[in-house]
């Protein structure tokens, strides 16, 4: 059975920067009952508290953070890059440990966003980009989806399991 890395906030756990959560999502509840979900909040895993100051990446480019070209800064100007990279590395370790090939992560997060991110000005402006964890997982060959792409994630899981000859519980 294929395991799926899922942002803890999408499972209703109060780990968001503002102490909030998202969900519940029926599909995630089903995957949880099936024992598929490996939960992680990269920011908390990297050592950041809940709640915490909002953080953004200039230009919303997590890959540039991984390459050492950009920092992750809080709204107060604190550099939290090390915690974001540590959380991404913990996500990658879970991927290796569980043979994960698919992740469902929080949209627009500086850690988890997979298609767009905030531009680093804390003004609500979105740009094409991805978070630090999403970028590292994608580099490792993991398919990364957000909660706004549940149907696509379900289809990707079915394709993975069809190629392995197992059931995706579709």
Q: Say how many strands there are.
A: 8
Q: Quick check: average pLDDT?
A: 94
Instruction: Report the order of strands and helices.
Output: EHEHEHEHEEEHEH
The description of the largest β-sheet is: 4 strands, parallel
Give me the secondary-structure category: alpha/beta
Residues in helices, as a percent range: 25-40%
Residue windows where pLDDT falls under 50 for at least 5 positions: none
Terminal residue distance: 13 Å
Tell me the domain tally: 1
Roughly how many Å is the radius of gyration?
15 Å
Summarize, please.
With 170 residues, the protein is α/β, with parallel strands linked by helices. Helix content is 34%, strand content 16%. α4 (81-98) runs parallel beside α5 (132-139).
Describe the structure in your own words:
The chain has 170 residues and is of the alpha/beta class. The chain has one domain (4-164). It contains 6 helices and 8 strands. The protein has helices spanning 26-33, 42-45, 62-66, 81-98, 132-139, 150-164, and strands at 4-7, 37-40, 55-57, 72-74, 102-105, 116-118, 126-128, 143-146. The strands form 3 sheets. A 4-stranded parallel sheet has the order 2-1-5-8, sandwiched between helices. The chain has a two-stranded antiparallel sheet with strand order 3-4. It has a two-stranded antiparallel ribbon with strand order 6-7. Helix 4 runs parallel beside helix 5 (132-139). The longest helix has 18 residues, at 81-98. The mean pLDDT is 94.
């Amino acid at each position: 059975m294929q395991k799926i890395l899922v942002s803890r906030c999408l499972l209703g756990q109060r780990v968001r920067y503002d102490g909030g959560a998202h969900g519940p999502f029926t599909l995630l509840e089903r995957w949880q009952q099936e024992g598929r979900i490996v939960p992680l909040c990269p920011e908390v895993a990297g050592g950041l508290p809940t709640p915490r100051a909002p953080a953004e990446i200039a230009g919303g480019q997590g890959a540039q953070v991984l390459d050492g070209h950009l920092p992750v800064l809080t709204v107060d100007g604190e550099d939290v890059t090390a915690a974001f990279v540590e959380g991404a590395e913990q996500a990658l370790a879970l991927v290796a440990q569980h043979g994960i090939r698919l992740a469902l992560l929080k949209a627009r997060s500086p850690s988890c966003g997979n298609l767009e991110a905030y531009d680093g000005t804390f003004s609500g402006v979105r740009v094409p980009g991805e978070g630090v964890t999403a970028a590292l997982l994608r580099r490792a060959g993991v398919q990364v989806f957000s909660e706004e792409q549940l149907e696509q994630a379900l289809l990707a899981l079915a394709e993975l399991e069809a190629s392995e000859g197992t059931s995706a519980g579709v």
